[in-house]
Amino acid sequence: MINIAIIGTGGISDTHIQAFRHFADRCRITAMVDLDTNRAAAKTSRFGLDAKVYATWQDMLDAQTVNLAAICLPPFIHAAATIDLLDAGVNVLLEKPMAPTLEECDAILAAAERSGKLLSVVAQNRYKIPMMKVKQVLESGIIGRVLHAQVDSYWWRGSHYYDLWWRGAWEKEGGGCTLNHAVHHIDLMHWMMGMPVDVQSLVTNLNHENSEVEDFSTTVARFADGRVGQITASLIHHGEEQQLAVQGERASVIVPWKVLASKQRDNGFGEPDLSTVAEIERIYADLPDIPYEGHEGQIDNVLAALQGEQELFIDGVSGRNTIELVTAIYQSGFSGQRVSLPLAPDSPFYTREGVLNNAPHFHEKTHSVDGFADDSITLGSDYKSN
Ligand SMILES: NC(=O)c1ccc[n+]([C@@H]2O[C@H](COP(=O)([O-])OP(=O)(O)OC[C@H]3O[C@@H](n4cnc5c(N)ncnc54)[C@H](O)[C@@H]3O)[C@@H](O)[C@H]2O)c1
């Protein structure tokens, strides 16, 4: 039986608790850790868990042995908590973003290396049926040479969103929607397309006044072989119509699932290529569904990896790749320059200090709350419909 600690029992922890409970034959939650022990205790009883409550992860480590910690803390303490837990011999499932800066990501990777413990960074959108299938469709080569990929990380958040004490501050949240929302879609971009060689970005704040950080960014990325990527991160899009669209020579494939194909007439104008569409639809339909989606899918894999039954699917390096792209977007957006990747440690945004010194405050935070009475949250598109 794998003993689990939930570290941070706020909004996202419900999703982790439900997912772990789904695999009750393989694991059990034995520790709930939160500075706000009342919140941790209330959640422990709401979910009927047989778990002890602790204020700090150090108290928990002193009192009991756990095999896996799910870190659901605000981003600015991801590195401190993850490094302490790995060094104490605990495997870690770390919520996104891995950490706000590359310096912290590198320190986490070094701790994973020296401890020999498992580290997985949450990227639950890979575990969506259409995403897994589109990845396989792309790998089959059926759409021909890939030319362009676009991710629309469209979200909508009202002004109260940034009232939470740690949000909307470079020091605590580490960034805005590029780091904290588009993180999911940036992961999908490099998972499907690999890492680009350079990016050019615009980063701004259009409509969130109680926040230092951006609520919008848009980026053009170039890949070594000439392919082009476009990434938009936004908190101002009503309806949150999130999509991934990949254009190939023969066809385009889109999530939520759609396939389009054109062939040319004598004059070069296009007409639908229905046989290619039918061929790709058939390949897609024949691909098996994954058994679990979202956090459940990733947690199933982490448990199986701990039991030696599967390879770990999402590791620390892919978490770092996402942060490298986010960092390049900030560097480009704030300098107005095209930025080449990989980034070197002399990037002005590599360290926490560098971010604090170089990122503009779009606004100053003027008010803040410790928490919301309603801490239920939504996790974005199911990618089945828009
Ligand atoms: N994967 C997703 O789709 C998804 C969705 C939402 C949030 N998240 C991520 O999950 C993390 C947590 O977000 P949230 O919305 O649950 O935040 P939250 O503020 O609701 O919860 C964080 C909890 O951590 C506790 N905490 C803070 N500092 C602590 C410390 N030093 N020791 C112990 N407890 C401490 C707080 O009291 C709070 O209860 C963030 O990194 C966020 O980006 C991921």
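^ nicotinamide-adenine-dinucleotide complex. Residues 316-335 form the longest helix (20 residues). The first strand starts at residue 2 and ends at 7.
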